[in-house]
Amino acid sequence: MRIVVLAIATLVVAAVTPLSGAGAEPAKRPTVVEVYTSQGCNSCVPVEALLETLTRRPDVLALSFHVDCWDFLGWRDPYGSREHAVRQQQYVRRTGVSYVYTPQLVVDGLRQATSLDAAAVARLIDLAAAVPAVAPDVHLFLHDRDHMGVAIGAADWRGDADVPLVRFDREQSTDIRAGVNAGRTVTGRNIVRALMPLGTLNVKALELRLPMMPRHDIRHELCAVIMQERPQGRILGVGVIDRPAALAALK
User: Fold this and answer.
1) Which of 17, 57, 74, 105 is the most buried (most CB within 10 A)?
2) In sequence order, what DSSP letters do the residues of the chain get, joined into one string?
3) How far apart are CA 186 and CA 100, in angstroms?
4) Distance set, CA 32 to CA 62, 127, 173, 174, 190 (Å)
5) 211 preceded by cis ω (within 30°)?
6) pLDDT digit string (tens) for 43-94?
7) Least confident of 15-19, 149-153, 205-209
8) What backbone torsions phi and psi does residue 6 show, to the nearest 5 degrees?
């Protein structure tokens, strides 16, 4: 068993404590669709309609990664991040694409959608879902009101995986006041606000307890933990928790 704990921002501190008996039951994981987009991109607005459709699917976890590469056109995307742009560039290098573009959709870390055609994206999701699971189930739950639990179950898998914690907003609307999309009101969904590395993992089974952010911080309603084959390859496992709903259930 090996876990290398990295420096983590305010949500997760350096102390990661093993649990005893979380009692989590694994479920079939959703297919992860990463959408790289920007409010400063004139061809990105239509992707929000596709995102709305994907977020309604229980078998899909759609994550909207806003990048900062179009900020120079006159509108600074409030959710844009250099970290997200670097993550996209790593996908571009691995897939052999000669340039970075938005919107870009990456399905389960491996397959790249070449258009926003809903049927074509659905076919890629079906292909990803048909691949037999090769890694542990990842389950998120509230250990108590102050700690979130992560349970990674045993599976017949060997290798190294990066395990980031993703915090994201269910929905945010923005009035764009400048740039190519000036005058539009754009509603984004599943907007990634923080991508925090928990470490590099090579285990058969593991349980962790992570400190929650203060309950008054409701900006990032949802959390996911992704297990991704190194270096930034296929998605091996994912767990998701709706924090407000989970807290309400504890009452």
Assistant:
1) 105
2) -EEEEPP--SSS-S--EE-S---PPP-PPPEEEEEEE-TT-TTTTTHHHHHHHHHT-TTEEEEEEEBSTTGGGS---TT-BHHHHHHHHHHHHHHT-SS--SSEEEETTTEEESS--HHHHHHHHHHHHHSPP-S--EEEEEEETTEEEEEE---S--S-EEEEEEEEEEEEEEE--SSTTTT-EEEEEEEEEEEEEEEEEE-S-EEEEEEPPPTT--S--EEEEEEEETTT--EEEEEEEEHHHHHHHT-
3) 23
4) 6, 12, 23, 25, 12
5) no
6) 999 999 999 999 999 999 999 999 999 999 999 999 999 999 999 999 988 8
7) 15-19
8) -100, 170
DSSP β-ladder status, 161-175 and 185-202 = antiparallel
Asked if 50 and 232 count as a contact pair (C-beta separation under 8 A), the reply is no
Structure tokens at 148: 């979130």
Angle 118-130/47-55 helices, nearest 10 degrees?
40
Tell me: the pLDDT tens digits for 155-205?
666 778 888 999 999 999 999 999 999 999 999 999 999 998 887 777 666
CA distance 123 to 227: 23
